[in-house]
Write a structure and sequence with these properties.
Layout (H helix, E strand, L loop, with lengths): L2 H5 L3 H9 L3 H19 L6 E4 L5 E8 L2 E5 L8 H14 L3 E5 L9 H9 L4 E3 L4 H9 L9 E3 L4 H10 L4 E2 L7 E6 L5 H12 L6 E6 L2 H16 L4 H11 E5 L3 H11 L3 E5 L3 H7 L5 E4 L5 H6 L25 E8 L2 H17 L3 H14 L1
Parallel strand pairs: 3-4, 3-6, 4-5, 6-7, 8-9, 8-11, 9-10, 11-12
Antiparallel strand pairs: 1-2, 2-13
Helix pairs in contact: 2-5, 3-4, 4-5, 6-7, 8-9, 8-10, 14-15
Length: 373
């Protein structure tokens, strides 16, 4: 094999592997694709142009990033949903070249990942992973396309590598372990609350699951239910360790305090199981994604609801948002000044430029006035 085919899936490999996907799984991916695409296609932003009173024309326009690299973890966490959530907003934005990599050198690859990548029209699929793959995407190599932006989750090494190359390329975010905060009152079903805390905890020993309630009895009921449900869980050890080290129940008596706690945590996922959900939503400023009512477990948002599951973690919801079409678009301002415009605005420009000791700036405006008169 040449080096290129060693690190790259051939067309033939892609076709053969994606045919191995389980029928039910294929249908699930197809449904998720349609729903995610529909939600994201409503996010398109419109350019605008306006003229001021001197007929100066000022515009704002959008264009898509040219090349995007998507990192999809392999091994313990090999998720086709990651492919869909990272590729679809790029597709909707109009990104022409999407490249994907998933660690599969010398190990079996998950056919669902290859199928999802093929469905998203990915240009090339690479077989490598780890921090060195982030470097290859950022700077290019003989066998690797150099991209403009890198998106997708990974382990601590991948996250650090993304942080390292940021500036030379764009990145989506530095993602930490997954997290959920659940607000529940006496009307909540403790079994559902426990199930959703476990769903988050099984991701990772560092995952953070928090219950916020005004009802002490509920905390006891949830704890009992956790013990019961954990017994049957295949990832029991991971979930138990996560809940032990990063699980928390917070007793907050007033709605005002509950809102304050949420905004302080700035959770990636927030679930509301109360009879005053709307009141809470009004007060929330910091949260990645919000799930309302007992029929909206976070898991549905991970797969098929439609909104993106790539969300800010570790309190970064204070200043950032989940992945969207906007993350794959650049915005440009366009300025066209008329003769009247430069005549009327020049004195202010000259005054400011002189104040800032930038005489060359002032002169570049003055020289135009001289030429005209």
């Amino acid at each position: 094999k040449t080096n290129a085919t060693r690190v790259l899936f051939t067309k033939k490999e892609i076709n053969n592997i994606s045919k191995k996907i389980d029928k039910k799984l294929k249908l699930a991916i197809d449904l998720a694709y349609i729903r995610i695409k529909k939600f994201h296609s409503k996010q398109k932003f419109s350019s605008f142009t306006f003229k001021d009173k001197y007929k100066n024309q000022l515009s704002y326009k959008y264009s898509a990033i040219d090349k995007v690299g998507v990192y999809v973890p392999g091994g313990t966490a090999s998720y086709p949903s990651t492919v869909l959530m990272n590729c679809i907003p790029a597709i909707v934005a109009g990104v022409k070249n999407i490249y994907l990599t998933t660690p599969s050198l010398g190990s079996k690859v998950n056919p669902a990942i290859i199928y999802a990548a093929k469905k998203c029209g990915v240009k090339k699929i690479y077989k490598t992973g780890g921090a060195h793959t982030i470097a290859a995407f950022a700077y290019g190599s003989k066998n690797f396309e150099k991209v403009d932006k890198i998106v997708g989750p990974g382990n601590a090494y991948v996250a650090c590598a993304k942080k390292e190359v940021f500036g030379d390329v764009g990145i989506d975010m530095v993602a930490g372990p997954s997290e959920v905060s659940i607000v529940a009152d006496k009307t909540a079903d403790s079994e559902l609350v426990a199930a959703d805390l476990i769903a988050q905890a099984e991701h990772d020993v560092y995952a953070q699951s928090i219950l916020i309630t005004n009802n002490k009895k509920l905390i006891n009921l949830v704890n009992t239910s956790l013990k019961k449900q954990l017994k049957k869980l295949p990832k029991k050890n991971i979930a138990t360790q996560s809940l032990k080290n990063f699980g928390l129940a917070i007793l907050a008596n007033r709605k005002k305090n509950i809102i304050e706690v949420i905004n302080t945590i700035a959770p990636e996922h927030l679930e509301l199981f109360t009879n005053y959900n709307n009141k809470i939503i009004k007060g929330i400023k910091n949260a990645g994604s919000i799930f309302i009512g007992k029929f909206s477990p976070e898991a549905i948002g991970d797969y098929v609801a439609g909104p993106n599951h790539v969300l800010p973690t570790s309190g970064s919801a204070r200043f950032s948002s989940g992945l969207s079409v906007n993350d794959f678009l650049k915005r440009h301002s366009v300025i066209k000044i008329t003769k009247t415009g430069i005549e009327r605005l020049s004195s202010s420009v000259i005054n400011l430029a002189k104040h800032e000791n930038l005489d060359g700036h002032a002169n570049s405006v003055k020289i135009r006035l001289k030429k005209e008169n």
